[in-house]
UniProtKB/TrEMBL annotation:
<feature type="transmembrane region" description="Helical">
    <location>
        <begin position="109"/>
        <end position="129"/>
    </location>
</feature>
<dbReference type="GO" id="GO:0046943">
    <property type="term" value="F:carboxylic acid transmembrane transporter activity"/>
</dbReference>
<keyword id="KW-0812">Transmembrane</keyword>
<feature type="transmembrane region" description="Helical">
    <location>
        <begin position="381"/>
        <end position="400"/>
    </location>
</feature>
<feature type="transmembrane region" description="Helical">
    <location>
        <begin position="315"/>
        <end position="336"/>
    </location>
</feature>
<feature type="domain" description="Major facilitator superfamily (MFS) profile">
    <location>
        <begin position="15"/>
        <end position="405"/>
    </location>
</feature>
<dbReference type="InterPro" id="IPR020846">
    <property type="entry name" value="MFS_dom"/>
</dbReference>
<feature type="transmembrane region" description="Helical">
    <location>
        <begin position="53"/>
        <end position="71"/>
    </location>
</feature>
<dbReference type="InterPro" id="IPR011701">
    <property type="entry name" value="MFS"/>
</dbReference>
<comment type="similarity">
    <text>Belongs to the major facilitator superfamily. TCR/Tet family.</text>
</comment>
<keyword id="KW-1133">Transmembrane helix</keyword>
<keyword id="KW-0472">Membrane</keyword>
<feature type="transmembrane region" description="Helical">
    <location>
        <begin position="228"/>
        <end position="248"/>
    </location>
</feature>
<feature type="transmembrane region" description="Helical">
    <location>
        <begin position="18"/>
        <end position="41"/>
    </location>
</feature>
<feature type="transmembrane region" description="Helical">
    <location>
        <begin position="292"/>
        <end position="309"/>
    </location>
</feature>
<dbReference type="Pfam" id="PF07690">
    <property type="entry name" value="MFS_1"/>
</dbReference>
<dbReference type="InterPro" id="IPR036259">
    <property type="entry name" value="MFS_trans_sf"/>
</dbReference>
Length: 422
């Protein structure tokens, strides 16, 4: 079926904002647990303590990892548009049901189920954004997309200030699910299917052959080394993101800073993350995603090591801002490079696998740093540990030995769609 050119253009323009909104909802949903935990700990009927609350957090992250690993292949086999609709609808429904959970067991199960959808959103959104990016803008398309995550996280914190005391923690989950009532119908109407997926499906139908298992592609045709490198880098990258976001205030307090200063430094860290995303994408478009990722991880290692020195006055804010610029966006540049390296037939699978394996780094980061805090070694050894992790990430991403896949997006999306629709 041939779609009129004006309709194709309109749909292409909807890809970026719809994917951004989906990632923003993911950012909201993955941070909301931290916002409501103090209230959950006060629920007398739940009987939660910090250990059992941490278990709920881990269960949710395991769901995210499982979703990232499983939804990617589904997207490559059956289409990105349908998979996106299912994941957004699924995690929004489970998020809504969390508001009515009557105990920690049901709440934990719902968090795991929501995680399955949350984990699937990111690889699909990354694949679509890459495939519909303008020529030579794959890096910035990916980093701009990921600003949605931080926007969702900031919105969660702001809503928590106004909602928790006035209306109670269940309303946080109601508000987190409500945007899907608008977003899902918009996706149904305006989100186009991946042009790359349609080409592959059309070619398979013409030759009357079954599509290949996308997971097998990750270790065949010379992709094995790149796959292992992406997994290792993602593990290190998300270890940094979750470790710093969870424990930076406590590490800075151990260094002798006041609580207010320590919390302000966490905000500065995330402001730096957004700046790093905007800058890093443009740099990647100019010098290439792999080279930019190596530079970003290396700079992260240096800036984190420098935080082991107690800096006076405003210089500590500058140091933390610099660490945020390089540390958080380094992992996003890994996603941008992976989206270019893997062929369209396995693109979401490769991105999902990197994200899923990386989530185990996200689980490990807070745990390892927590051990250092308990032992009284978090400052300065926590920053030394983070610096070494960033250096390993730089070495791992440098080991990727493949350039862009032959079918990596190099033309404008509208031109791609014209080739599909004839």
């Amino acid at each position: 079926m041939t779609v009129p050119a004006d309709a194709r253009t309109r749909h292409v323009r909807w890809v970026a904002p719809l994917c951004w909104a989906a990632v923003a909802l993911e950012g909201f949903d993955l941070v909301v647990l931290g916002v409501v935990l103090p209230s959950l700990l006060k629920e007398p009927a739940w009987g939660l303590d910090p250990n059992s609350a941490s278990l709920i957090s881990v269960v949710g992250l395991l769901g995210v990892a499982a979703g990232a690993l499983s939804v990617g292949p589904v997207s490559d086999l059956f289409g990105r548009r349908g998979a996106m609709l299912v994941t957004v609808s699924g995690f929004s429904l489970c998020t809504l049901l969390c508001a009515f959970a009557d105990g920690p067991w049901l709440f934990g199960v719902l968090r795991f189920l929501a995680g399955l959808g949350l984990g699937g959103v990111l690889p699909i959104a990354l694949a679509l954004s890459t495939e519909y990016a303008r020529t030579g803008r794959g890096g910035s398309a990916t980093t701009v997309l990921m600003t949605g995550y931080h926007a969702g996280a900031v919105l969660t914190a702001l809503l928590g200030i106004f909602v928790l005391e006035r209306f109670g923690w269940p309303w946080m989950f109601v508000l987190g699910a409500a945007p899907a009532l608008v977003l899902v119908p918009l996706m149904v109407k305006f989100l186009p299917e991946s042009a790359a997926f349609l080409r592959i499906r059309g070619a398979s139908a013409t030759r009357a052959v079954r599509p290949r298992n996308p997971a097998a592609v990750l270790f065949r045709h010379g992709y094995a080394r790149a796959t292992i490198a992406f997994w290792m880098t993602s593990f290190m990258g998300l270890l940094l993101v979750y470790g710093l976001n969870t424990w930076l205030p406590e590490i800075m307090r151990a260094a002798g800073y006041e609580l207010g200063t320590a919390l302000a430094l966490l905000l500065v860290l995330n402001v730096g993350a957004v700046l790093g995303l905007l800058i890093g994408g443009r740099v990647a478009d100019r010098i290439g995603q792999r080279r930019a990722a190596v530079v970003w991880f290396s700079a992260a290692a240096v800036s984190l090591a420098l935080l082991s020195i107690k800096l006076p006055g405003l210089s500590i804010y500058a140091g933390v801002l610099l660490a945020g610029v390089f540390t958080f966006s380094a992992q996003v540049l890994v996603y941008a490079h992976a989206a270019q390296v893997y062929p369209a037939a396995a693109r979401a699978t490769g991105l999902g696998a990197a994200s899923g394996i990386g989530r185990f780094g996200g689980i490990s980061g807070p745990m390892v740093t927590g051990v250092l805090l308990t032992a009284g070694l978090a400052y300065p050894w926590g920053f030394y540990l983070f610096a070494v992790v960033a250096a390993i990430g730089a070495v791992a991403i440098a080991a990727v030995d493949r350039g862009p896949a032959p079918d990596a997006p190099v033309a404008t999306p509208l031109r791609d769609e014209r080739r599909v629709s004839g």
